[in-house]
Amino acid sequence: MKILMVLTSHDKLGNTGKKTGFWLEEFAAPYYVLKDAGAEITLASPKGGQPPLDPTSAEPDALTSATERFDADADAKAQLASTHVLSKVAANDYDAVFYPGGHGPMWDLHEDADSLALLEAFAKADKPIGAVCHAPAALVNAKGKDGEYLIGAKRVTGFSNSEEDAVGLSDVVPFMLEDALKEKGGVYSKGEDWGEYVLVDGLLVTGQNPGSSEKAAKELLTLLKVMPGS
Asked: Which of 115, 157, 112 is nearest to 136 (CA)?
């Protein structure tokens, strides 16, 4: 079982002068869910190398058992420091793909040509696709095997407008993710702010927020277990 995880390379939080990137919990929790299930994980990002970490996600109130496990895992840290360049990876080498969130994907993965081509290849090959929190931004412009938007008429979730308002970044992000998912035909819904909420529609898994990252990875695994040849 080979799974690709795609992280952001974007580190600027709009024009605030602050840093952003990927959210640690949204990487660490799925990473260990998949790894503990025996998956061979490959990490990639648009620029390759060490992806930027959102510093807020490493503050004490954002830490979890998964982030603490990662902090003590030299092998995982080394793997993260040397992600593959996204343009050099191919969907046919993997059984599924998972996108951790953080605000970074709103700027780069949202319109990255290599990421979009990769997602479209996974969709065409009927392979599971997962994304959590802000990472469904990467799905917004991707097309499915029918040439229509990948999320069109599919039940999806992602970081909600009310959660963006709560973190005070609604005027900073390039677009509101909830609105963008709806605009491309996604049947958006959400749970309580910050609560676990994950949707599965066909081979597409989306999670609403950091608290949904572990369950989203588990749902991806469930899809893989029922795939032909699994």
From this structure: 157
